[in-house]
# Entry
Amino acid sequence: MIQDILVTGLVNGGVYALLAIGFSLIFGVARIVNIAHTAFYMLAAYSFYTLLVRAEMGFALAGIVSVAAVVALSVLCYKLVIEPVREHESAVLIATIALALIFQELMLLAYGGNYLGIPSTLEGVLILFGVSIPYQRLLILAVAAAMLAATWFLLYRTRLGLAIRATANDLEVANLMGMNVERVAMATVGISVALAAVAGVVVAPVFVVDPFMWLSPLVTMLAIVVLGGLGSLKGSLIGALIIGYVEAITVFALPAGAFLKGAVALTIMVVVLLARPEGLFGVAFEEER
Amino acid sequence: MFLLRWMWANLRNEVLVLPSRILALAWVVAVLLLPLAFPDAYVLRIATFACLFAIFAASWDLLAGYTGQVSFGHALFFGAGAYASALLSLRLGLSPWFTVWIGAAVATVFGAVVGFLCQRLRGAYLSLATLAFPLIALGLLFAFPDFSGGELGVSGLRRLAASATGNYYVAALSMLAIVFGLWLLADSKFGIVLHAIRDDEVAARASGINTPRYKLAVFALSAAAAGFAGALFAHYLRIAGPSTLEVALSFQVVIWGIFGGAATIYGPVAAVFILYPLTEWLGSYGAFGELRLLAFAVIVLLVLLFMPRGLAPWVRDKVESQCPRCKQRNRAWRSVCRLCNAPLRLGAA
Amino acid sequence: MLRTLLAAAAAAAIAGGAQAQTVKIAILGPMAFVQGENHWAGAEMARDEINKAGGINVGGKRVQIELIRADTNEIQSVPDATNAIERVITRDKVDFLVGGFRSEAVLAMQEVAADNKKLFLGAGAAHPQLGAKVEKDYNRFKYWFRVTPLHVGDLVKASFAVLGVAAAQFRQERKGATPKVAIIAEKAIWTEGIVKAAQANFPKMKLDLVGLWQPSAVATDVSAELAGIKRSGADLVFTVLSGPVGIVVGRQMGEQQLAAVAVGINVEAQKDEFWQATAGKAQFVSTLETVSEVEMTPKTVPFYNAFRARFKKGPTYNAAGAYDALHLLKEAIEKAGTTDTEKLIPVLEKTIFTGVGGVIEFDKRHDLIFGPGRVTGLAIQWQDGHKIPFWPAGVKGIKPFKLPAP
# Structure
C-alpha cells in the first residue's frame, strides 16, 4: 500500500504540475486572474483530438499544430478582449470567465455534449513495485519536468524573462524605463497559454474530453497555485505534489471515501492559507496601497 | 393630508430631479404591478427567479464591491440557507415562514466563520480560498447522504404561498426590502467606512477603524442576505439540491455583480433583471435555445468592452453629472447645479 | 404570383384546420446533449409513424400529433428546467409532457407538472424517489408515469443476476476458484441500497468481497482507486456508476491493464460512443442496459433498424423511452376515447403495452413492473468495439459473456 501511495501520488502530482505551471506564470507573474486558462487547455485537447482522430495527422504534427493554433487564438483574444479593459481588474476577471463560457458553449455546439477519448501517445505500462504506471503518465512526468526547466530558464536566464519579471514587480516603473509593457504582457499570455496547450495535448489523453473539462482542473490548479504561493514555480511544483499525495492517501486510507479526495485537498489548501496567508513559497508583500 | 404633502414634496424635490431616481421609482412600481399586467404563470416564474437572484447579486456586491473581498464561493451561503431551511421545515415540520429566517441565520454563521478564516487573506488569495468552501461543503453533503439527500437534495418542500402571484409577491417584497436595506446601509456612514477599507485598508486602520471587525460584519451580513435568498429559492423550487452549491452559480453571481457595476447595489440588481429574462427569452426560441449561454457570454463580453466599469455606472454617467463644488448629482443637461448654482460645464454659467 | 398567394393561403388554411385537431406533446430534454437529442429523435420517429398512419383516433375523430421541442438545459441548471416546463404548459398550451433526465431537475419539474395537473411521462430519470412520491401523495403526483428506465430497486435484482452469470463463467474457466469481487460505486443516494445489498448477498452468492471504492460521480481520474483494486487482487469489478466517471473507469482499467472485468451498471457504457470515448480501451466492460438490438419484443429490432436508417446511429434508452411514451399515449387515448388527463390516468394504470424494451405495465408507484414477461432490461458487454448482449438467457440474439485470458 505504501508503494502504491508513493508511486500514484508522484505520477498524479506530475500531471497536476504540468497543468499548474502555466497557470502559475500568468497568475503570479502577469497578475491576470485568467479563469479561461484551463479553457485554452480544453481547446488544445479538442484540437488535438480533431487533428489526430478525425484528420489522422499523427501525434507530433497534430500536437504542434494544436499548440500553435491555441497560442495564436489566445494572443488574439488578449488583443481584442483583455487589453481594452486591462485597467479594470474586475472587468478582466469576468472577461476571462465569459471567454471560458464562450469556448465551452462553442465546443458544445460543435461536438455536442459527448465524451471523447484521445488515443494514448504511448501505449503500454511500466510495472514499478507492483504498481502499473501507463507510459502516457511517464510521458506527462517527463514533459512536466522539461516545461518547468524551460520556464525557469526563460524567466531567469533570458532578456525576455527579465522583462517579464520587471513588469510584474512594477508595471509603471518598467514602462518609464522604456519597456514595451504591452508586448511583454502579450508574451506572458502567449507563453502561459502555450504551457496550457501543451498540457492539453499531453494530459488530455489520460482524461476524457468534454465541453466542461476545464472546470475541475481549474479548481485543482487554483488550489495548487495558491497553496504553493502565487508566482513561485517551485511553489506550484510542490503544491502539485502535495495535492497529488493528499488525494492518493485519501483514496488508499479510505476507499469508501474516495469521493472526498477533492474536498480533502481543498481543505489542506485552506489550512495552509490560514497558517501562511501568502502560500508556502509566496512572497509576503508589504501591505499594498 | 400633511403626510401626503410631505410625500409629494419629497417625491418632487428628491426623486423626480434625477433620472436615475426616476428609473428606480419606475422599476419599483413595475415590480409591484407586474402580476396585474401579466398574470401568466410563466412570466411570474421568471420574475420570481429574477427577484431571488437579485437579492443574491446585491448581497455579493455588498461584500465584493464595498469591501473588495471578491468572493468566488458565494454559492456557499445561498446553498447553506437553502439546505438549512429545507431540512428544518421537512424534518421538523416547521412552517417555511419561520425556517427561512433560520436559513438566513445559518448562512450568517457560515459567513462569519468563512470571514474569520479568511481574515488574513487579501485579493486573489481570498477569492480562491472562498472558491474552495462550497466545494468542501459539497463533499460533506455527499458524505452524509441520510442527512442531506446526497445528489438529489431535500425535496418535497412546502411553498410559502399557494398561488404563483402569492409566491411572486413574497419574492418581490423580500427583494425590495433587502435591496433597499442594503442600499441604505451602503449609503450610510457604515458604507463610507467600507469604501475606505477597500481603497486603503492601512489608512483606514490608521484612522482608528477596526477594519477586521467591519470586514467580518460585512461577511456575515452579506451571507445572511444570500442565505435568505437561498431559502426562498429552495421553498419556491420545492427542492434544495447540490446545484445550489455549484461553481457555476458562484461564477454567475460574479458576472451579474461586475456586469451591473460593482459597489452600487442597484447595478447587480439591474444586471439580474436584464440578463436573467433575456437569457430565458433567448432560450425559448426552439433551436436557438441551445445558444442561450453562448449569447449570454457574448453579450456580457461586448457590454464590458464598452462599459468596463459596469452597466449601471455607465448609464448613470450618461444621464447625470456631478457638481464640481458641492458633489451633488444633477441631470446631465442642466447647466447649473440644482443645489448650489455652481456652473456644471465650463463656460455655461 | 396569384397562384403562389393562393397556395400559401390554402396551406395556411390547412395548417390552421390541422391545428385545431392536434394533440400537443412537449418533449423535454437537455437538447445540447446526447440524452435530449435521443428524446427528440425517438419522439420524432413515433410522431411521423402515428401521423402517417392517420393520427390518433380520439372518439372517432382523427387527430395529428404536434411536438414541441423544449430545451430544459437540466444538466447545467435546475431552474432552467422548471422554466422550460412551465413555458410549454402555460405558453404553448401542450396537452402532455414527455422526457426528463437528471433526477434533481426532474423532481423539480414533477412539481410544476403536478401544479398544472399535466400528464408527465418520464423517459430518463431512474431515481426511486420519483415513484415514491406518487405512492405517498397520489392525488398530487398521479400525473407522473415512468416509461423508462426501471427504477433502481429493480436494477439491483437484475445486476445481481448478471454478476451471477459472470461469476459462473469465471468458476467454469478457472476450475472452481471463488471469484474475488471489488465494488466501485459512485457516491450517491441511489447506489447506497445496491452497495448494502451487495455486502449482504456476496457470501450467499459465494463471492469474495475484497473492498469498496466510492469515487465521485464526476471524478476525472480514478487511477488511485484502480491501483487499490489491482492490489486487492480482484477478478471481477462490480460497477455501480451513472456519471461520466464510468468512462474514466472503463478507460483507465484498460490503461492500467487490470486483469479484472467490470460487471454491473455503467450508464455511460450503454452509449454507442463509449468505445470511442475510452479510446478503445474498454474491452470486456459490461453493463446493464435498458434496450438493445435483441428481440426483447417484436418491436425491438424494427425500431433499431428504422432509427439507424434515419439518424445514422443507434438509439439510447431515452430515444426508446420517448418513442414508447408516444405510442403508449396513443393507445391510451384511443382506449379512453378522450384526451382528458383525468380520464387517461386510470386507463394508463391498467394498460399492458408492448414497447421497444419490454412489456410496459405500471405498479402503484407508476413505475414499470419488473420481471420476465414485463421489463427485465438486459446486459451487454463490449467486445472489440461492439456491444454484445449476453443476458437474459433465452432471448433471440443473446451471445456468451467473455473473460480475458488469465
Remarks:
- Chain B has two domains: 41-284+293-309, 310-343.
- Residues 104 and 227 of chain B are 5 Å apart (CA to CA).
- The mean pLDDT of chain B is 89.
